Structures are given as structure tokens and as C-alpha cells.
Please model this.
Amino acid sequence: MTELEHRTPEQEWNAWGTAEGASPVGEEVRTLLEQFLGVVRRDTPSVDRPDVRVGASQLSDEVRTALAAIVGEDGVRTDDHTRLLHAGGKSTPDLLRRRAGEAESAPDAVVLPASHAQVGALLALCAERRVAVVPFGGGTSVVGGVEPERGGFDLVIALDLRLLDELVEVDAESRTATLQAGLRGPEAEELLGKHGFTLGHFPQSFEHASIGGFAATRSSGQASSGYGRFDDMVQRLRVATPNGELDLGRGPGSAAGPDLRQLFLGSEGALGIITEVTVRVHPKPQEVESEAWSFPDFATGAKALRALAQNEALPTVARLSDEAETMVNLASAHSVGAGEQSGGCLMITRYEGNRIAGHARTSELLAASGGTSLGAEAAEQWSHGRYHGPYLRDALLDVNAVVETLETASTWSKLTETCDAVRGALTESLEAQGTPPLVMCHISHVYPTGASLYFTVAFARGEDPRAQWWQAKRAVGDAIVRSGATITHHHAVGTDHRAWMTDEIGDLGVAVLRAVKSTVDPSGVLNPGKLIP
Amino acid sequence: MTELEHRTPEQEWNAWGTAEGASPVGEEVRTLLEQFLGVVRRDTPSVDRPDVRVGASQLSDEVRTALAAIVGEDGVRTDDHTRLLHAGGKSTPDLLRRRAGEAESAPDAVVLPASHAQVGALLALCAERRVAVVPFGGGTSVVGGVEPERGGFDLVIALDLRLLDELVEVDAESRTATLQAGLRGPEAEELLGKHGFTLGHFPQSFEHASIGGFAATRSSGQASSGYGRFDDMVQRLRVATPNGELDLGRGPGSAAGPDLRQLFLGSEGALGIITEVTVRVHPKPQEVESEAWSFPDFATGAKALRALAQNEALPTVARLSDEAETMVNLASAHSVGAGEQSGGCLMITRYEGNRIAGHARTSELLAASGGTSLGAEAAEQWSHGRYHGPYLRDALLDVNAVVETLETASTWSKLTETCDAVRGALTESLEAQGTPPLVMCHISHVYPTGASLYFTVAFARGEDPRAQWWQAKRAVGDAIVRSGATITHHHAVGTDHRAWMTDEIGDLGVAVLRAVKSTVDPSGVLNPGKLIP
Model:
């Protein structure tokens, strides 16, 4: 059997990304952690690979043979290492678990279909044989979306879509491209680049996440102000289900009833497997302009972003850090103590393509809204480190600290309330556990009616760091829901947000999702335990 | 019982709009109809009101009492005239039928709820008593959407939402407003205007259509280039169903699973009654700039629109008529024979609010794309007559001609193919019936990936004009579907497009819609015979 190869390097089993990306924290950071968060100086490394307890595969020869009849022998993997690489996603609890050597719940097999037809055949087979199916793209979920839950079935397979990696079609005139679901971010960009196009979708997970995952989770990228959310980009999508296939989207706009694409966007593998999407593309920008700004406080910066959004003056990237995040970013950029930094909030702006024409007008609005230009450098620095954040998390996990992120979105009129509610809930819960946190926040997705709020929280590792985090997470989720905001702006639901779905869409909304699931997946094998309460 | 009153004047029972709007065609037009379409000079007036055969109400005293217990005695109308006013929509076949005195299928009652709670109670009652419910806003459907079909039930009521006419809330900071579903276009604008806002939604039906109807049909207005489609404007919506209510939309963007708002937008009353929507609003524009352009041909004009859309340079209104429509519009504007007109295609552009800043850049792109500016006048003329089109249809029906419209949307790369396919199917079918048509086309909704195509077709009235039109309509629908375009861009499905819904969303898509309907409306009383094949 060949090694499981891919154009995009495999992620580490116990960390974000690849070993090359790792960067251990230095003495200075350890001192800061000690001073500000009370982190006791102690190494908390991952177990070594041989010490990981990977559950044994329960796959019977009969089911293996049936799977192999569809995808070939080489398409059915049951070795421990491949199954370990599909044992879950990349949330902090996921990583803590794998660092502790726990992989008992690894899937019974990893199956590699190479076409839409093979996906359809696999789903029909799994429905018949009652095998749970967890679709797997880049494996970057931070909400338990790729957790190999059995959901009452005896077997669970990870359906790894990496072989669906073709650029199917480019329609240069209509500026659309049809991409297969298994393409990773960089691969899609490389293929589109040959035609002079870009997708413009650059979430922090870009280097590993897949096109299908972007669609299935309603991903939103760092350049969403210029290129939109991923769900907005999708013109057409092809979905395989145990009960047949769907091919949805027949025009740039339509009034032919409900927009069923919007049922499968965000469906997280629970209603079908997205195998192909047709998305808007843009000419690859020849020039890029960047400018960083400083605002006296977060509220003033947020008001400036609102002015841009409501005056159709957004750059391609617009991103505002609160005071705490600004301080930490500057400290880490200059490798100096945070105490030396001046206050204020950093805003990053970046202009590509058509948006360059509006740079001057945007700058005028930002200046009029209380901003001070810092020039291009700080913005370019952000750009260079834009995918690095998750690596820092692993480094901190090594030194007895815990970092996790969460996000929401709210209307402009409730943004401060939501922000305060989240910060309050995190602080209160972790303080009560004896580990007062550092909470940082930024806005990175801006709409005329409101904005996202993205929080990074760091705290000293307690005795049971997973329980410690879940206690805080539950308090935050409740606070978000009480404030009227959404439980997730772009991380999706997975297992972690499932408890709040009833708050989000109501009992009848949940009943509607269940009815749809019963129609496309009557046996319930698709990604059990995700999305639907 | 009081007269059925409303701030917006009632439409005529046998024509579009009000009697004041009517304008009979003159001698010159009759001569042109004779010369170009072979229309035999003959008056074909509507029957008089006393000659209309309004079916008798079958409402039992028991059901009436139960309905009245919810909405009061005054909220249950069974008089012939009120029922006639709810006997269907405003498609040409609808008008031909009523002009012939056929109103046997009028609903058994018109019921007037005054709140969301009353709507919910009525739906529960109707589900229990097995009474079909047809929601009725402005009654402007041109696809049979408000046809009082019984769907196998003994009774059918029209649920007239006119009493749900409040502006519930304005959130000036987030630029959203919450509107009740029964508000008509002008009423909503008047209420929002007091707060300095506009919705920016101005479809040709604006003067009579309702907010709930805009949402339930995915309406798109003439200013969609600037303000978007109605479905894009909706942040939140409240829906009453026989099985409870839905309150959907908790943030400016969300990844909390499928976007269930998109199931109820475009649901045409078949999945619930939308009682309230929260929509984006915009500062009421202080200035407006208009400019008309001439293009040598439709393809060149379309390419110019594509350049605008793909370069983020669209005005608020962008509208391109083909050669035939340009000729007829100019002829009717100047009251001269069409033969005197020069060729070419007219494009209307209009700039409001933020878009004014882009006028110069847009003009540059249009000039570079082969356009010649005609100045403001022709564009302002269009603006003055923008809601007049449907009145002309009634005038032509009086003089032995038939006019109807239909629309679709296609990607830029297939736009010409779709346009030719529609024109070909209409021409072929009506020629085969001995009545070669005049087919006019315009683009009025433009996207980066494609555009709408709106067709107006005029022809000599045959012996059975409804059968004559349906033969053509069937051929066109098939042609649209074959070309890969959508069966409707903004008129919705109703009864008329139902036959093509399987082409649009596939068998499994239809099964999904049925499953959703079974969940929210298990007895099937909601708007039978619409939307779902």
C-alpha cells in the first residue's frame, strides 16, 4: 500500500500544520506568561507518537471488500497512523487530547474516493451497511466537525476527499470556476493562478483547509471585505447523499423558490457531501497596497469600520484589534516587553484589484473617524504572519499555558454589548477557576449591518485543561446567545456549538433540519453528532 | 361591516393598478399593431362588473365563527366584491380570465389578521379544519402565486395581510428596519422616509406589492444594482406556520449551519406566512444623477454592463434595452412611427447615494465599452414612466392584442444563447399559431457572474388567447431550462413555473421541499398548488 501522499504537506498528528511551521516560545514570553497569567514554569509536552493509544479498527473483511470494490484496495486505509491523522480536528481540546495520547476514537478506516460517483456509491453502501461517514477535507475544524463519532453505529469511516483535486472548469467570461471539494486552499490558488484568477478566500486555515470544507462550514476569509464570505461566492454546488445527488444553482440570481444551496452550505457533512462547487473568481491582483492605522480605542475603531461598510468604502482586508491584542501583537513583533508599548488599537487595511481605486477615499474616512495612519509597514508585517497564529498556540501548550479562540457576529448597535458579554463570561469563568485569562479581540469581517468579533483567550493551564476550557466555553456560549448574537460567525457548529442550535434557529428550525436530514440520509450515517441537536 | 379600506388604493378587479393609471392606446398605436403584428382592428373590452360570475362562498357558519373568534367579525369578509378582488393575480391569463367574467374560483372568504399572533392562530385553525390558506399581499403576482386553489380541500380563504402595516423598529446605527409583511411599497417608503431612510426596493409592482410578497417571492427591484435583491436585504424574518413559528437570523453573517432564512425567502406562502422582516436600509438619497447611453447593439451593451459589474462600478440602476425595445420605447416616447427611429440599444443609468462618487469612473468604462452618452433626459423619462408598463398591457388587451412578460437569468457566457433560445421559442410557437410576435428584451439586474433577461412579447389575439399564450409559454420554459438558465429571476414560481421546478432543483431537491413542507404544514393547507411540483 502506498504512503498517503498529497500535494499539500500533511499536518502533524498532535499540532497545527507542519513541523517546519513550529516555533517554540522563548524565555521572554515565558516570563510574561508567569507575570501576567500566573503560568507556573513547567514543560507540558505532547506524548511521543509510540505512546498514542489508537483504537483498533473494527472494519470487517466484508465491509472492507465492499468499500474496496468502489475505491480500490489502495483507497481503504486501516493503518494506525492514517487513522490517527483522521482522529479529529484542531481545536485546543482536540490537541490536548491527542497530546495526552488519546486516540481511542480514531475511525475504523480512512476511505479515499476519487470522483463524485465514488462518493455517491460509498454513501449508498454506508447507508446500507450502517457505517457512519465523517467527511474529511483539510481536517482543520476547531469545533469538532470531523470528530469520528459513531452515533450508535458499529463502524465509522473518515471519507478523505483529497483525491477530488481538480479544477474542473474556468468560465473566464462569467468569472467563475468549478473546483472539486478536496482541493486545499494553496492548490486551488495555484490552479486558478494559471488562468490569471484568484478565489480571494484566505482564512487563517488557508494553508490546509479544503474547498469542500469552506463550503460545508460557511468559512469566511481574511479578505472577506473585498471578496465576500465563501457562501456568497458559491454559484452552484454538487452534493452526494445516500439518497441521490443534488446539483443546485442555475443562474446568477433566481426566484425559483427557496435557495436550496443555502441548506447545503453550512451543512457540515450532516446532509450530504459537497463534491464540487462553482465559485466566483477574480483577476489575480497585480498590485497590493497596505496601510496600518491606529485608533485611540476599540469603539472608535469599530465606528470607523462601520463608516467604511455603510459608505461602500471597504478595502479588501479590514481588521481591527482591541487594546489587548494590539499590545500583544506589537510586543511579539518587536520582542520587547508589553509595558513599553503605547496604547491604542491597530487597524490593518489592504487593497487589491478594484479596491485600490478607493484607497484615498477610505483613508479620508478613517482619518475623519479618528484614525492615525501608521503607513504600510505594520500592515505588511501582519500579512507575512497571517497564517502563523495557530502555531503559536502549540508552542504555548508546550509551556503550561492554554490558548483557544472563539468568534461571533453582532449588529453594530449591539456590538459593544456582545463584546463585553463575551469578555465578561470568559473572565468570570476562568477567574472562578483560579486562572484569570488574557482576552484579546479583533474584528475581521465587516458588514453594513454589523461585524464579527473574534476572541483569543490565554490562561494558565489547570489540572484538567479540557474541563477548564469547557466550563468557560459554556458560559460564553450562553452569554452570546443572551446578547442576541450568533453562536458562530465562521467556525461552524460541529459538536461544540450543537447545544446552542436551538437558541439559534428555534425548535421548529431544528425540526426542519431533521426533516431534511431524514430525506437525504434516512439511515442517519452522515457525520453523526454534528450540527443538529 | 366596514368597507375594505387601505392606505394604498385598491387595484381594479380586471386590470393592473387603479383607474387613474389607465391610458387607452391611440389611433397611431392601433395602426402600428395592425401593420406590424396583424392585429385585426376590433375592440375586446372586459365584461362589466355585474356580469362577472363570482363563485358562491361555501363558508359554513361554524368556520366563520371560528375565524371571527380570532380576527373579529369585521376581519372575515365573504361579500362577492372583496372575494373577487382576491380571485387571483395579475398575469395576462389572469386578466383575460377576469375580463371574460370568470371568477368562479374566488376564495370562500377573505380574512384579515392584524398581528403575527392572529396569523399563527388562523393557520392552526385552518390546519385543524382543513381550510386552504392563500396569503395575499398586494395581489400583484404574475405567476399564479395568489390563485385561490383549493388543493383538495373544501374551503379556501385568502389571508389578506394589509392590517400588518407597521414599521416595528428602526436601528439607525445598524441601518436596519423591521417591517410588517402587509406594508405596501409606498407605505414602507413613507414610514422609513420619516427616519431618513429608504429600502431601495423598486420593482415595477412597487406601487401595490407588499413587503411580505417581496420576501416570499425573492423580488428584485429596478435599483438592484445599487441596493441588491430583496432576499439579499433580509437580515431576519419571522414566519408563522401551522406548526409554530420561526424567528431566523441572528447576525450580519453566520456559520451556524444552513441558512434557514433562505428556505422561507421564496417559499411563496407554501411553507409559512412571513409576518415580519428586518431589512437593510439606506440613507434616503439627497441627490440623484441620471445618464442615458446608446450602444450599437445588445451584445455590446451587455458586455459594457459586464465590465461594470466585474469592476465594481455599477450605478444604482443599470438597464439595457435591446434593439426592439429601444425602438418601441422611443416611438412611444415621441409619439412617432417606429420607422423614423435610429437603431441602437438604450441604456439607462442612475446614481444615488454612495454610487454618485463612482459616476465618472462608470461613464469612462461605458464609453470605453462602445457607449455614447445621450445625457440625462432619456434616463429621467424612463424614471417617470417606471411603473407604467403594466397599464399599457391593459390598454392593448382592449384592442385585440395580447402582451405578456417573462424573465430568466443566465451567466454572461451563456447570456446570448439563452436570449436567442427564448426569442426563438416565442417566435416559433406564436408564428406556428399564425400570430408572429414582437419580442422585446432588456437586462435590468446585473451580477458579476451574469444578468437577468426580461422579455415583453406582443402579438395579435387569437381565438383562445389563454391557450395561445400557454402554448408559447411552455415552449419558452423548456427552452430556458435546456439553455441551463433559471426558470425565473424575480417573478417566482407560483402555479405557472411549477412544472419546471424539477428541472431547477432535481427530484431530490423537490423531495427536500416536500419534507420541509410536511414538517411545518403537515395538513398541506398552505397555498396549495404553488411552488412544489
User: Anything to note?
Assistant: The domain at 389-491 of chain A is CATH 3.30.300.330 (GMP Synthetase; Chain A, domain 3). Confidence is low (pLDDT under 50) at residues 335-341 of chain A. Residues 106 and 343 of chain A are 47 Å apart (CA to CA).
